[in-house]
Amino acid sequence: MSQASDFYYRLPMRAGGQRPGSHPGTSHGNGQEFVTHAPLFSHPDPRRLDVRASIRDVRGEWLVRVMRQRVGVPVQLVADVSASMLFGARRSKLAVLADLARAIGASAFRVGDAAGMVAFDTVEREDLYVPASLSRGVGHVMAAQLENPALVEHAEAGERHRGDPVEGLLQALQRLAGRQCLVFLASDFHFPLARLDEALDTLSRAYIVPVILWDPAETEPPPANGLIALRDAETAARRTMWLRPKLREQWRDAVAERRASLQTFFSNRGLRPFWAQGAFDADAMSEYFFEANA
Amino acid sequence: MIDGAPSLPLDFAQPWALLLLPLALLPLLRRRREELTFSSLPWLPEDSLGRWIERLGRAAAVLAILATVLALARPGRPEWEVERIGRGAEIVVLFDSSLSMDDEMVARGAHPKRRRDSPLRKRNVAREALSRFVERRKEDRFSLLMFGAAPFRVTPFSQSPEVIQAGIAAAGISNGLPGTDLGRGLIAALSQFEGRAYSGSRVILLVSDGAAEIDDATRQRIRDGMAKHRVALDWLYLRSANWPRLDDEKEPEAVGLITDVAMHRFFKTLPTTYKVFEAESPDAVSKAVAEIERQQNLPLEYRERIPRRDFTHLFYGLAMVAAFALLIHRGLTVRSFQTS
Question: Rounded to a whole number, what is the distance in Å from the CA of A193 to chain B's nearest CA?
Answer without folding.
Answer: 13
